[in-house]
Amino acid sequence: MHIREPNPSRVEIENRLRTYQRRTQQRDGFRRAAVLLPLYAREGEWQLLLTRRTAHLPHHQGQIAFPGGSVDTGEDCISAALREAQEEIALDPLQVDILGCHDDIWTPTGFIMSPVVGVLASLNGLHPNPVEVSRIFTVPLLFFAQEGNAESQTLVHDGVRRTVHFYRYAGETIWGATALIIRNFLLFMGLLTERSERGEG
User: Fold this and answer.
1) Helix or strand or coil: residue 101?
2) Which superfamily, per CATH, for 10-188?
């Protein structure tokens, strides 16, 4: 039986990331963090795995986020993202095919976040760590490529005006750093065409 491959293909995503000079950021006083942008192929379409953070965490309480967290001493962004994903949702690092890293962003909460793009072999065995994650769910990647699904607001932070995008899906609101990382990735892959607000979440 022929299995339809998602578009863009895994090979295309990997090749683009491999030949791309990603944008890194340095900001005084900001902590480094890494998140896993987890893609899962289902019925010939990419699904994006997301989590809802618990309400009692010190940062981004209750928000929709990628698995991830602070980069510890001696780690790079890939090892940090995989470690955090294992801690948060019991994702076995051996079940992740890392395709590469994309552009850093910074957040008003004081983090520089590095997105790590990976393909999951399976969703079996995943379960939320109740200390950090209240829900795991997936959203079709192309849902975010349809501009009719995006709502935008202009917010001001430290005197800088920025456009913040909001997506509503299955009762969840996806916005802030998570929405920005998704939009930057879609722009990078040619699935969106507008100019990105690269950097600030």
Assistant:
1) strand
2) Nucleoside Triphosphate Pyrophosphohydrolase (3.90.79.10)
